[in-house]
Amino acid sequence: MLQNRVDPLGRIIKTSARGSWMGNRGVIHNEHKEIIREFKHIAWITCVLEFKGRERTVMTAGRWTELFFLDEATAFAAGHRPCFECRREDAKRFKSCWIQGNHLYNFSMSTSIKEIDAIIHRERITHEEEKAMHQRLPSAIPEGTFTLMNEDPYLFSKGKLHRWTPFGYEDSIAVPEASLLTILTPDSIVNAFRAGYAPQIKGGEFGDSP
What we know:
alpha+beta, 23% strand, single chain, 4 helices, 6-stranded antiparallel beta sheet
């Protein structure tokens, strides 16, 4: 079993659960298929599992490291965004919503995605290379946002919080009232959700088995 799944805190873990999206942070493994660093570059992307019939051997020496996510909401919480090659339309839609939701930066569609990546990078990881978090009121979190409750990641969807596991969501709870929540999804990405980008979430209707 390889260490190649990513949780909402951005940690790369081992699990037998399969992912529905693939990700890339550069070459972060060695010739023994072991993770040796958290990232190589700041463009953390989310890709489709299949594209133009291309085939790859996972964790080939010297090639970028294939990472996998439960769903797109998990990938965003970890700090990844859509790839402009295999997910061009999603990437363009995300960029548009990101710009609309983050007026502070006065960006336009002509702005380089590298400038947006630099901002997201500052929001997802601290100088000590730990997960960066921020706080918001429950009323200010949109569908698909992740929060941390009792050291566990919870997804906000359908008006409730759902505990993340590598296999799906369980243990749905009510959103605490009138208290700040600790948010895992980078701040500017949450703003992109508020501006209209709806991330894919595994399971759809909660209450069913993952």
